[in-house]
Design goal:
Blueprint (H helix, E strand, L loop, with lengths): L18 H18 L1 H5 L4 E5 L5 E2 L5 E6 L13 E5 L5 E2 L5 E3 L2 E5 L6 E10 L5 E10 L12 H8 L3 H14 L4 H9 L7 H34 L1
Parallel strand pairs: 2-9
Antiparallel strand pairs: 1-3, 3-7, 4-5, 4-8, 6-7, 8-9
Keywords: Copper, Membrane, Metal-binding, Signal, Transmembrane, Transmembrane helix
GO biological process, one term: copper ion transport
Subcellular location: Cell envelope
Length: 232
Amino acid sequence: MHVPKPPITLHTRRPRTPGLRRALLGILAATMIGLIGTPAAIAHDSLIGTAPEEGQVIDTAPETITITLSEAPLESSGLELSRIQITGPDNNPVEATPVTLEGNVMSAPATIDAPGVYSVAWRTVSSDGHPIEGVFEFTYEPASSTPTEGPSASASAAESAEPTPTADASPSASEEEDPVAEPASEDTESSGGVSWLLPIVIAVILVAGAAAFMIGHRQAVKADAREDGTEG
C-alpha cells in the first residue's frame, strides 16, 4: 500500500536588503550638508556703511547721521530699540533727535558746529532679535576756520607771509590717523553673538542623527534574528 509523503515545504530566506541602512546613512549625510548653511542662517545683521564714513574728513557739517545695515532692524512703538549717540571734541555730547528707521537705514539729525573729531556710537536690535552695536569716527574741519585774506592789497600781502594756513592743516593729519583702527572693533561687536549659538545647533543635529541610526540598526538586528528563528 502506497502511503503518500507529506509535501516538502521549502523555507526561502528573504535576502537582507540594505535599504534601511542606506536610508540612515542618507539622513546623516543630509545632516552634515545642512550644517554648512547653519552659520549664515544664524548670523546677525551686519553694518554696510555710514554717513559720514569711518575716518572721513569733511568741511561741511552733516545735518543727519546715517547708518545702513544688511537687514532692517526691529521696530517697536513703545520701546526705543535703536539709538545713535554722538560725542564731539573734548568728549562733549551732541544733542541728537530720536532715531528714524526707513528699511535697513537708521538716521538721526544732529547739530555739528565745532571743528574736531566726532565719535558716533549706535545700537539697535537686528532682524533675528539680537542686539548689535558699533562705533565710528569722522573729523569736521569747516572751511570757515581757515583764515581769509582781507580785500586790500596791503593786507593780503601781509597775511600771505603768515604760516597760519599750514598750522591749521597739521592737526587734520594727526586727527585723520586716529580713527583708522576702529573698523576692526566694529566688525567684532556686530558679530559677537554667533559663537555661542553655533555649537548648540551642531550638537543637537548630531545627537538626533546618531539616535536615528541606533534605532534603525537595532530594528534591523531584530528582524534578522526573527528570520533566523523561523528558518530553524
